[in-house]
Specification:
single chain, alpha/beta, 7-stranded mixed beta sheet, globular
Length: about 170
């Protein structure tokens, strides 16, 4: 029904499907991304971020490790049409394995109850965050800054996934 209300396919793809319509309109220039194959040795601080989806949408969980001054994005889990109970089980398993120092779960709309449950029952370190324009702008600016300063690197096993998102728009 949203698609019929949005007559421009590019606007729908960008706003509702989270696709980059053009490299110019994308958050970052793909050529600036630094890749890695293996994590370096050192004490890691673990982070988790999650965008909640429903039965008709997908959820995404991104985990990262900060070692020295660099953040290493080490996992991107795309959960396609996975029910909430299974998503909750996945977050519990991931937290018990990695003991996240901090994390944010999208509590906008359908994610509200999920984020609250995780905070109360899994870890108070995993907090809800409303993905409003006011909150997204500083997050985007921080990510861009980290990329430009070469302070964030992405595991090379996600290179084709990230590149395909840029090319398939």
């Amino acid at each position: 029904s949203l698609r019929t209300l949005c007559p421009d396919p590019d606007v729908f793809a960008q706003e509702y499907e989270c696709r980059f319509v053009s490299e110019y309109g994308s958050l970052i220039d793909l050529s600036l991304i630094d890749w890695y194959d293996e994590l370096p040795n050192g004490n890691a601080v673990n982070y988790l971020g999650m965008d909640i989806g429903s039965k008709s949408d997908r959820s995404a969980i991104v985990t990262a490790k900060k070692i020295n001054d660099i953040i290493y994005v080490d996992d991107i889990a795309m959960l396609n049409k996975v029910e909430y109970e299974r998503q909750l089980q996945i977050v519990k398993e991931m937290h018990s394995k990695n003991n996240y120092t901090a994390g944010y779960i999208d509590q906008t709309g359908i994610g509200s109850a999920f984020a609250e449950f995780v905070y109360k029952n899994v870890s108070a370190k995993l907090k809800g965050l409303s993905f409003t324009s006011a909150n997204k702008t500083p997050m985007y600016e921080k990510l861009r800054s980290l990329i430009f300063e070469h302070k964030i690197k992405f595991n090379s096993r996600f290179k084709s996934l990230i590149e395909s998102d840029f090319k398939n728009t």
